[in-house]
Design brief:
Blueprint: E1 8-10, E2 12-15, E3 18-26, H1 41-70, H2 72-85, H3 88-101, H4 105-121, H5 126-154, E4 159-163, H6 168-175, E5 179-184, H7 192-199, E6 204-206, H8 211-214, E7 220-224, E8 229-232, H9 236-257, E9 273-278, H10 284-289, E10 295-298, H11 303-306, H12 313-327, E11 332-335, H13 361-366, H14 368-381, E12 387-391, H15 397-416, E13 426-431, H16 434-438, H17 440-444, E14 449-452, H18 454-462, H19 480-495, E15 499-502, H20 512-518, E16 523-527, H21 531-538, H22 543-555, H23 559-573
Parallel strand pairs: 3-4, 4-5, 5-6, 9-10, 9-16, 10-11, 11-12, 12-13, 13-14, 14-15, 15-16
Antiparallel strand pairs: 1-8, 2-6, 3-7, 7-8
The chain binds phosphoenolpyruvate (PEP) and magnesium ion.
The site of magnesium ion (MG) has 5 residues, from helix 18.
Length: about 575
């Protein structure tokens, strides 16, 4: 237990808000497997069957992807893994042992499959030895699926999740089981887990080194997602202070809620459209409640979690259609699967540099069947004419022309079959890689709109991993190169006749909002929880003034100068009631 005198841990403020609850340690990589007795054998058998089913489904998807990408020979490994899952002798043995010994299923699975493994390992045949690794994979997959199932049912009360690292999928999973906050040892501000936390309105502090050693299960924690602080086992004074703060924040939120139906218009009449970023359908309520003018970025990668694998065309169609109807008459911008990077790669490929690897459009063009299923689903869902389609990670003209011709083929196919769709559906690209930023004007001539993805743009422009807390100080949204690049994209994109928006987390930073408006953006898209704050700022500034501020920033040579100017602008021009809150 951490002593009261030094009970504050520091990290990166990744999602705003304050939460007070007991710690729940989630030590994910080390699966604690014990032979603890179980009371409900039927439940254990049911869990086993569900975990086997889920593992089979996962491997099925991996197999078909591997088949397309790597060819039949290498894909056979996964087919062999599926066959093991179907081996009646093995499964029967495991079931029988659970019934007889009444022990945790993961214990029996571990024990039984390890026997196979040892047998193979002791073989003189190198091929058999090699296969023992595959068996290890299967064993871990089943155990992981068994554990995940338990994870959900185990958390009964409100908790703060403390973990080494957390994936976007975990963040979603936990948000559904009473997680009030997140604390992680690793991670950066724009890691996807942080983004998901922000969009679900769950305070998070990441990059708190050693938090999993310093915090014990059951400790009371205060997560201060504004300042990146964790207070472990707070004393009475600290509790009173933070409870007061929570009360004030709630009052301020009530104030902001009054702006819901008011436009985000500057004091001199320039309107900025604020849309919402959406990772999960769960967030839609909050996004609408906070007054979003439609959805500027629907990330579809999370569908893999929702559907336990690749959703097929029909499943996707229903999802997109539902979203489009719920948001109508406002528009929704659905982004093609941005798989890879720190997001789910439903495929057992280890890449040395995932962020520079098989990601976004590269993955989609290599997995055409998957891409086509998404395009068809989106087109079919577009009949209300309020869907736009956005493509991630574009780096070259060739990619743009290739995906456009795939979309054309899909349209022709639908036409031939008399299936309705919006023939004028707007197509846009993410500008999040330096090459695309440089060629923004040329690329804009090919599409209807550009969406600036600062989360990646900053990482690629400054060569700093967005999810790595060690280098988080170098991840600077106000680096002069970033500000000038954004300006370049806006000017050249607009000159070419495209709409230009920005959907990176930078737009959720209250310091950045005046700058972005001043640089000439007409719309921004942010996490649901950030919408009221951005609106409040915009309604308090003069466009003519922030334009001058932006011009000054464009001439500055250091990050420090720019952020100081923006801070002093906010302090002197926006005397809002929020000042002492954050
Ligand atoms: C971005 O890169 O800014 C962006 C919005 O996309 P994502 O965070 O999903 O990579
Ligand atoms: Mg991106």
């Amino acid at each position: 237990m951490v002593k009261k005198a030094d009970n504050i841990l520091n990290g990166i403020a990744a999602a705003p808000g304050i939460a007070i609850a007991k710690a729940h340690l989630y030590l994910k990589e080390i699966y604690e497997i014990n032979g603890d007795p179980i009371t409900d054998v039927d439940e254990a058998i049911e869990s086993l069957n569900a975990a086997l089913e889920k593992s089979k489904k996962e491997l099925g998807k991996v197999f078909s992807l591997a088949y397309d990408k790597l060819g039949e020979k290498r894909a056979a490994i996964f087919e062999a893994q599926i066959m093991i899952l179907d081996d009646p002798v093995l499964i029967d043995n495991i079931s029988k042992r659970i019934k007889k010994e009444k022990k945790q299923p993961e214990y029996i699975v571990n024990d039984e499959i390890s026997k196979y493994q040892e047998l193979m390992n002791s073989s003189k045949e190198p091929y058999m030895k090699e296969r023992s690794h595959d068996i290890e994979d299967i064993k871990n997959r089943i155990i992981r699926n068994l554990k995940k199932k338990k994870l959900q049912s185990r958390i009964k009360e409100d908790v703060i999740i403390v973990s080494e690292n957390i994936t976007p999928a975990d963040t979603v999973l936990f948000s559904r089981v009473n997680a009030l906050g997140y604390v992680t040892n690793f991670g950066g501000l724009t890691s996807h887990a942080a983004i998901v936390a922000r969009s679900l309105n769950i305070p998070a502090v990441v990059g708190v080194h050693d938090s999993t050693n310093k915090i014990k299960d059951g400790d009371t924690l205060i997560v201060d997602g504004f300042h990146g602080e964790i207070i472990v086992n707070p004393d009475a004074k600290q509790l009173i202070f933070y409870n007061k703060k929570i009360k004030k924040l709630t009052e301020y939120d009530t104030e902001l809620a009054k702006l819901k139906d008011k436009p985000a218009v500057t004091l001199d009449g320039r309107e900025i459209i604020i849309q919402g970023n959406l990772d999960l359908i769960d967030e839609l309520g909050l996004t609408i409640q906070n007054g979003a003018r439609g959805l500027g970025l629907v990330r579809t990668e999370q569908l893999f979690q929702e559907f336990d694998g690749f959703p097929d065309e029909e499943e996707q169609y229903k999802y997109y259609k539902e979203l489009s109807e719920k948001v109508y008459p406002e528009s929704i911008t659905i982004r093609a699967f941005d798989i890879g990077g720190d997001k789910v790669l439903p495929f057992d490929v280890k890449e040395p540099n995932p962020f520079l690897g098989w990601r976004g459009i590269r993955f989609l063009l290599d997995n055409k069947k998957l891409f086509v299923s998404q395009i068809r689903a989106i087109l079919r869902a577009s009949v209300n004419k309020n869907i736009k389609f956005l493509i991630p990670m574009i780096t070259s003209m060739k990619e743009i022309r290739t995906f456009k011709s795939i979309i054309e083929d899909c349209k022709n196919d639908l036409l031939k079959n008399d299936i309705a769709f919006d023939n004028d559906m707007k197509i846009g690209i993410m500008i999040e890689v330096p090459s695309a930023a440089v060629l923004a004007g040329e690329f804009a001539e090919e599409v209807d709109f550009l969406s600036i993805g600062t989360n990646d743009l900053i990482q690629y422009l400054l060569a700093v991993d967005r999810g790595n807390d060690i280098v988080s100080e170098s991840y600077q949204e106000f680096h002069p190169a970033v500000v000038r690049t954004i300006s370049h994209i806006i000017i050249h994109g607009k000159n070419a006749g495209a709409e230009v928006s920005l959907c990176g987390e930078m737009a959720a930073d209250i310091l950045a909002v005046p700058l972005l408006v001043g640089l000439g953006l007409d719309s921004i898209s942010v996490s649901a929880s950030a919408i009221p704050y951005a609106k409040k700022i915009i309604r308090g500034i003069l466009y003519s003034e922030v334009k001058e501020i932006a011009e000054k920033c464009l001439k500055m040579k250091t990050e420090n100068e720019i952020s100081l100017l923006l801070k002093s602008f906010l302090e002197t021009h926006l005397k809002t009631e929020s000042q002492n809150l954050f």
